[in-house]
Design a protein that fits this description.
The protein contains 11 helices and 8 strands. It is of the alpha/beta class. It has one domain: Metal-dependent hydrolases (TIM Barrel, Alpha-Beta Barrel). It has an 8-stranded parallel β-sheet with strand order 1-2-3-4-5-6-7-8. Helix 3 runs parallel beside helix 4 and helix 4 runs parallel beside helix 5. The protein binds zinc ion.
Length: 286
Amino acid sequence: MAVSSIRLFDAHCHLQDARFGAGELDDILSRSRAAGVSRMAVNGCCVEDWPLVHAIAAAHGEMVVANYGLHPWWVGRQPDHWLDLLRQRLLANPGAGLGECGLDRSRRAPPCPFEEQVSVFKAQLLLAQELQRPLSVHCVRAVGHLREALAEVRPTAPVLLHSWCGAAEDVRAIASAHPSAFFSVSGGISALPPAKAIRTLRAIPADRLLLETDAPDGGLRLGPAWLEALPGFARSAPPCPERQEPAGLRRMLALVAAARGEGEVGLAALTWRNACAVFAGLPAAR
Ligand SMILES: [Zn+2]
């Protein structure tokens, strides 16, 4: 298969984000198709944006898998019955995954007692397990709490650890303890020192690796240390747009292939298969 004919699955993005204009979706999707990115999982973050995610998936079901969840940044700012609303939405949409949910102890997260985040996350982990839906998880400075929650629930439904930036040791520990855990890599990994990021990328087992843009965030920011660590990639890399979109997944493919010392064609096929395993049974995977 030629590089031009590869197909890619963007395992996590946010096409409903207000930074994408209402009339832009068709152009974004056609640029995505032209780049070989023919499937994507679109994640809702709060009750308010679920209807928009639903509308995008309804209009573009051949490309888009809907995911509905409560992101940690919105915890404490939702109607009391948010969990009932989430359950109803998932039951009404058998093709949907659960996400984005998770844990965030960074300063970027709005103030909220961390215990509340943990209980909201566990409720969604249990719901995904009960309904056997893939779960898309945000985890920032909270890998210990994530591992505790996974050890408690022992999910068998796929758990996609989105924009994974954790250490190689955590990859090995989570991958061996949880056969349904997947590690999804976005441009966020370029915030790490390259040596650490490359160790992490090489530690991810081949059958657990996914690629994502996290669009409109998740752009690659490659400083001089990165350019030195991966000179082959840097020479061929086009400049990174301010606002990421699914077509940018080709750059992630190039980066991860260079970091792992693998070919782009093989890595595209591998990550496509893995994403279809995560979203197995959902319409976009067929
Ligand atoms: Zn996200």
